[in-house]
Design goal:
two-stranded antiparallel ribbon, 212 residues, globular
């Protein structure tokens, strides 16, 4: 099992690492999961921790683990947690290629969901099944310091430039309406991930300035 590392989240470091993400996205269109994406985030712990901002109840980005083992059967690319609220975000990275989300087949005017996207979603569903199955056990409590946790899934895949308006709407609709066992799953491109994190980081810094 890959254990969680303790992180003292530093907003300044995260801002710098987010700028590096922007540079990466601008430098090339296609990104390999294993050669580009995983190594990039592994070397940037504060940025990785901030991906948990998709969870509305995570306010402390203080637990991070890469290739986190989910009770022996599955593993997620990245897990982030709030140790006080016992809230977690489990992340699956997929490649950023032309056909990462939709594929066009001869004779069909409407693109189909790609096998890579469906595989990423299926992995999240399997994680949720396993977490639900092991809840309220001693093993679960030993890992998460409690017999229940609040968690979401995040699938990051593809690029905005490869999506037509209709497919963007399809992705958005699926993002808003996919709930598994009362748990939300979010699907974002790497471009949307960058934009979302930029906006949230600005709000985070503003809230820090006005806190007494």
């Amino acid at each position: 099992m890959k254990n969680f590392s303790r992180v003292e989240f530093d907003v300044s470091v995260c801002r710098s690492q987010l700028s590096e993400m922007q540079q990466l996205l601008q430098s090339r269109r296609g990104l390999s999961e294993r050669d580009d994406i995983i190594p990039f985030f592994r070397e940037r712990q504060h940025l990785s921790a901030f991906l948990a901002s998709y969870h509305p109840d995570i306010s402390r980005y203080d637990r991070v683990a890469f290739e986190y083992d989910i009770f022996g059967d599955f593993a997620c690319d990245l897990a982030i947690g709030d140790s006080v609220n016992r809230s977690y975000c489990f992340v699956e990275f997929e490649e950023a290629a032309t056909n990462s989300i939709f594929i066009t087949k001869p004779g069909r005017s409407t693109p189909e969901w790609s096998s890579r996207f469906e595989r990423g979603l299926s992995q999240i569903i399997d994680w949720f099944w396993k977490l639900n199955d092991l809840e309220r056990t001693d093993d679960f409590e030993n890992r998460f310091n409690g017999r229940t946790i609040d968690y979401i899934g995040l699938l990051v895949v593809g690029r905005d430039e490869n999506l037509e308006l209709r497919e963007r709407k399809r992705l958005e609709w699926r993002r808003q309406n996919t709930i598994v066992n009362s748990k939300h799953s979010y699907f974002v491109t790497y471009d949307k991930l960058y934009n979302d994190l930029s906006y949230r980081l600005a709000r985070y810094q503003f809230s820090e300035r006005i806190d007494p």
